[in-house]
Amino acid sequence: MANLIRPGLSALVCMIVLSAVPMRAQQKGQYIPGEQGLNAGILPDPGFTYANMTLNYSADTLRNGAGGSIPLTTSYDIWANMNILYYVPKAKFMHAKIALMAMPTFANGSLTLGSLNFPNLTANAGGEGFADFWAQPIALGWSLKRADVYVGYGFVAPTGRYSPGASDNVGSGYWGNHIISGSTVYLTKNKGTTANLFTDWEIHGHKTTGAGTSITPGQAFTIEWGLGQTLPLKKDFSSLLQAGVVGYDQWQVTANGGMLTPLIPASITPYYSVHSIGFQTNLVLPPKNLLFFFRFEDEYSALARPQGRTISFGGSWTLRIPKPLPPKPTAPSTP
């Protein structure tokens, strides 16, 4: 079994500057949390793996830097379909499994803002198309007696449509570097109960704003966690049900650099953060190398960003190379 969802979904819409409300433009990072959960430290088996994930993030609440609700009628919605392609060679490096991954993404997003104090003042933004491209040129994973762990590096190329100041952008408009890790610890000898942790530290390049200036979004740190239990649906373990509690936490950890406008530094924007909790269920079919999942996470706290919920679902299939050998027949017992 493997958790095959990796970061790479670019932020489609940033908060809009509205002179009539107490709000400044906020530059979110490229990784939208809610893409991980159970089995966070398990890389795919050797061979080729294809996974598909549909993710929806929706919110109708906007929080300021102190956590208060901004008096806006707000609708924030993102749909994304991610195609994840993995290759894991049979060869190992330092006793570690090697994994390479690429993820093209199609996204559709919208942002609608209206002021309760100024009902006639509204703003709309959003776009659809191919978003930024995530590539993971290297990840090294180790299978230990009571844990599976990996570390890796990925980058985001700004291939999604981005035009400074446009309202239909799909890409982030800047390069990103991501240092990632995953861990799955087996709390029981039969490996049925697990504790999982995923981390992503993202470092950003600069982007051009609609005001003709350049900004560098602040670095961000994300953790995703999960506690899961696996139960056999059939006595021969050919069908397994996995369920558990999952959640994510994300923080901006450095100030934005550059200038929002020729007179306003980007560093004045407050740091954003968000926290959530939810659940995940997996259906695993080991003989067919298939996994299907559904995940829901509700955000219970946020600063300087929307507060909403994330739903993701999809599946994966692995073409194992080489094919595993069939079990050897056992000799009949003699009377």
Q: Helices and strands in order, then pairings?
A:
Elements lengths: L46 E16 L9 E17 L3 E2 L2 E3 L1 E4 L1 E11 L6 E9 L2 E11 L3 E11 L18 E11 L6 E12 L2 E2 L5 E3 L3 E13 L7 E13 L4 E2 L14 E13 L4 E14 L2 E15 L15
Antiparallel strand pairs: 1-2, 1-19, 2-5, 2-6, 3-4, 4-8, 5-8, 6-7, 8-9, 9-10, 10-11, 11-14, 12-13, 13-16, 14-15, 15-17, 17-18, 18-19
Any overview of this molecule?
The chain has 335 residues and is mainly beta. The chain has one domain (47-231, 240-320): Beta Barrel (Porin), CATH 2.40.160. It is built from no helices and 19 strands. The protein has strands at residues 47-62, 72-88, 92-93, 96-98, 100-103, 105-115, 122-130, 133-143, 147-157, 176-186, 193-204, 207-208, 214-216, 220-232, 240-252, 257-258, 273-285, 290-303, 306-320. The strands form two sheets. Strands 1-2-5-8-9-10-11-14-15-17-18-19 form a twelve-stranded antiparallel beta barrel. A three-stranded antiparallel beta sheet has the order 12-13-16, with no helix packed on it. Strand 18 (290-303) and strand 19 form a beta hairpin.
Q: In brief, what are we looking at here?
A:
The protein has 335 residues and is mostly beta strands. It has strands at 47-62, 72-88, 92-93, 96-98, 100-103, 105-115, 122-130, 133-143, 147-157, 176-186, 193-204, 207-208, 214-216, 220-232, 240-252, 257-258, 273-285, 290-303, 306-320.
